[in-house]
Amino acid sequence: MTERTNGLKYSDAGVDIDAGNSLVERIKPHIRATRRSGADGEIGGFGGLFDLKAAGFTDPVLVAANDGVGTKLKIAIDSGMHDTVGIDLVAMCVNDLLVQGAEPLFFLDYFATGKLDVDQGEAIVAGIARGCQDAGCALIGGETAEMPGMYSGGDYDLAGFAVGAAERGSLLPTGNAEAGDILLGLASAGVHSNGFSLVRRIVETSGLAWNAPAPFEDGSNLAEALLTPTRIYVRSVLKTIRETGAIKALVHITGGGFPENIPRVLPEDLAASVDLDAIAPPPVFSWLARTGGVEAKEMLRTFNCGIGMIAVVAKSDAERVSQALLAAGETVVKLGHLEERSEGARVNYQGALKL
Predict the structure, then answer these.
(1) Which of 232, 245, 230 has its CA nearest to residue 324?
(2) Strand order in the sheet with 270-275
(3) For residue 40, is it left (φ>0), alpha (ψ between -120 and 50) or beta?
(4) Can you tell me the distance from the alpha carbon of 247 to that of 238, in angstroms, rounded to the nearest whole number?
(5) In terms of DSSP bridges, do strands 307-313 and 182-187 run parallel, antiparallel, or are they unpaired?
(6) Which end of the chain is more exposed for a tag (fewer CB within 10 A), N or C?
């Protein structure tokens, strides 16, 4: 009887195990750089470990969040610039932990691609590690999936998973927001990681190439400017929470902009009055609005328009909290206040957006 064999290997199907192993070795120094109290292990096991007691918690409540980068990845893929989208991945997750008063503890990533490029993979994971360092959390594991036929060309996707903790009784929102409370807006770094399907459509309309000079930012090409990573607010805002004890709620301005995100932390009987005159949108938003003919109302429900995070504080605490945030490195504006609501819109606007 003759044994039949076709001689095929996994690599013939498009999966390179050696490349995967090479990537693991390349990213180990980046991951080691994210070590913190509670996480001192090496990658390579089947799961990541974290010691809450070693991290200094007494009676913790765990808070978890996951997110992606969205179609901002297409700009990274098309331009060949992969070193900042990992920061975005971390930022989108840890900022969501922050708004609940939680300290980010550890992070895991999922990187899926059609054909593993070790240099590309290392650049992405190095960005994730930088984001983790900025947020003070450990990168304790992840998954790299090479899936030929699922992704074409150099396409890839990212997902992130973050876990944080807060001592019991210290979670946000506190539930004691009331009419007259002040909204403090913290400046964004730019578009962050939402609305990029519209951004890409506007760029297509403009006819500009990714390597063309950015019309709104001197010294950068269009891809570099639009890939400016999402700001991570963790260290400055946690420091302010702990120093002042005066923040009642936080809002991360992500998809849905102001009208969708602010109501998420308010009781039904309160509405937000936002002073648009207080906002100084970075030039990228003016360019997007003009080039795409996007109305102000649509800008406010699609983009952060220059405000990436909002803190709710009592009027008597507003100046003290503002000064603490400024000292911690944030740019802060008095964005508006809370008012009583019986019906109608949850977010009302005063003034006009400067686009």
Answers:
(1) 245
(2) 247-252, 307-313, 182-187, 332-340, 270-275, 347-350
(3) alpha
(4) 10
(5) antiparallel
(6) N
